[in-house]
Amino acid sequence: MKVLFVCLGNICRSPTAEGVFRKYLAESALADKVTVDSAGTADWHTGKGPDPRTCEAALKRGYDLSKLQARQATAEDFHNFDLILAMDKSNLANLEALRPADSRAELDLLLQRYDLPRSEVPDPYYGGEQGFEDVLDLLENASQALLAELQERV
Fold first, then answer.
1. Most CB contacts within 10 A, which of 11, 57, 76, 109?
2. CATH of the domain at 140
């Protein structure tokens, strides 16, 4: 099973989702059965690491994002991944437009998939420190739900 998390620039939300979920996977029986990656629908930050504020907030909770590098989502991702999870409706629409007709990947909105209190992961880029903490809270909850789903499917 291959999972891809997607936001706009791949420097805040989706790398955080990747880092959080990687840690949850490492502590589960699925560690060798699930592959995780992240991407952005825009190419602004391709090749760069996550936002320093993202890294700092994540590291405080034990998630090391320092080795991740931003990349742009491609049509090929729809053939290489089983599950592509967008952080918000705007990026979901961008992904739907990119999706090839013969795609095999399941595409969904991460938080809405698990009927969590919010339907979208807000972009913390232009906000303060609390925004990054909120994103971590949301992604930890979503990661628990995703792990439970995959334990049933894999």
1. 11
2. 3.40.50.2300
What are the backbone dihedrals phi and psi of residue 142, each rounded to the nearest 5 degrees, phi first?
A: -65, -35
Name the residue range of residue 128's domain: 2-153
Active site residue 7: yes
Pairing type for strands 2-7 and 83-86 reads parallel
Structure tokens at 149: 């789903």
Task: Tell me which of 13, 22, 55, 88 is the catalytic residue.
Answer: 13
Catalytic residue among 43, 108, 123, 134: 123
pLDDT above 90 for 154: no
Closest residue by Cα to residue 123 from 4, 41, 25, 22: 41
43 is a catalytic site residue: no
d(CA 68, CA 17): 12
With 0-12 / 13-18 / 19 or more C-beta atoms within 10 angstroms meaning exposed / middle / buried, residue 60 is exposed
Residue-level pLDDT at 143: 98
Quick one: average pLDDT of 76-89? 98
Contact between 92 and 86 (Cβ < 8 Å): yes
Burial class (CB in 10 A: 0-12, 13-18, 19+), 115: exposed
